Structures are given as structure tokens and as C-alpha cells.
Amino acid sequence: MNPWFASIPLVLILTVLLTAGAVMLMRRRRRTGVRALLGLNAVLMGGALALLVAAFNAVPATAGDGGAAAASVAMATDGSDSSSAALLGAAIAVAGSSIGAAIAVAYTGSAALAAMSERPEIFGRAMVVVGLAEGIAIYGLIISIILIGQA
To answer: Under DSSP, is residue 40 helix (H, G, I), strand (E, B) or coil?
Structure first.
């Protein structure tokens, strides 16, 4: 595993902790908290720019190592147009259906709770409606499995 990828969770946890500390500081002393948040944003922006510069200055693999790097790059890019489009479509299907299901469950769940507060015997019918709204996410998952199988 690449050490850059291994450090991502550590950076994420550190960022969340620093942001929480700055927000708590902002509750006590507003001006100092705002400065802390601006400093944290500046550090994150500097890190992102450093990664961007490193990505643009990266040297591609050469064939000087016996052609193994060139062969692996050629093998990895064979059919990448269709497979990347299928994977992108699968990601969009899962994301869109999950967001749609979340919105549907939010509305139907609140309406079901309001209806059950007045008539408790309507519980079964209300849960069926909420389950139908959750089915939207399952449909997106099925479409993504089909698309990944085609890739």
C-alpha cells in the first residue's frame, strides 16, 4: 500500500479534530476562533497545492527497466475507455439512487410518523410506503452490478 494512501485517514482525523477545536475556540473567543479556522484552511490549501504540483511534476515510467513498466501501463489501459465509462455509470447510478432514496425516505418517514401518531393501527401500511421508497436505492445497486459486470 502506498504510504500516501495510508496517511489519508490520519490527515482526515487530524483535520476534524483541529476544526472541532477551532469551532469550540470560536464559541469562547470569536476573533481567535476565526483566525484558527482561517489558518487551518490555509494549511489545507497549501497541502492540496503541494499535492497538485507533485502530480504535475511526476515523471512517467520509462522503458529503461526492461519494458516491464511500459507493458504494465499498456495492459492497464487496454479497454479502459469502455470499462471506465461503465464504472463511472455505476458510481452515478449508486450515488443518484442513494440520494433519491434518502430524500424519499425522509419525506415518507416523517409523513408515516405523523400518520401513526394519530392512528397507531396504520403502522403496517406506513412501513410499506417507507420500504418502497428504500427500494429506489436497491434498484440503483442492481443497475451498478449489471454495469460492473459489463466492464
So the answer is: helix
Say if residues 70 and 63 touch (Cβ distance below 8 Å). Answer: yes
Cell output for 126: 406506513
The pLDDT tens digits along the chain (151 residues) read 566 667 777 777 887 888 788 778 878 888 887 888 888 888 888 887 887 787 777 766 555 555 555 555 555 555 556 678 888 888 899 999 999 999 999 999 999 999 999 998 988 888 898 888 888 889 999 999 998 888 7
User: What angle in degrees, to the nearest 10, is found between the helix axes of 80-118 and 123-150?
Assistant: 180
Cell numbers describing residue 49: 497545492
Cα–Cα dist 106/102, whole Å? 6
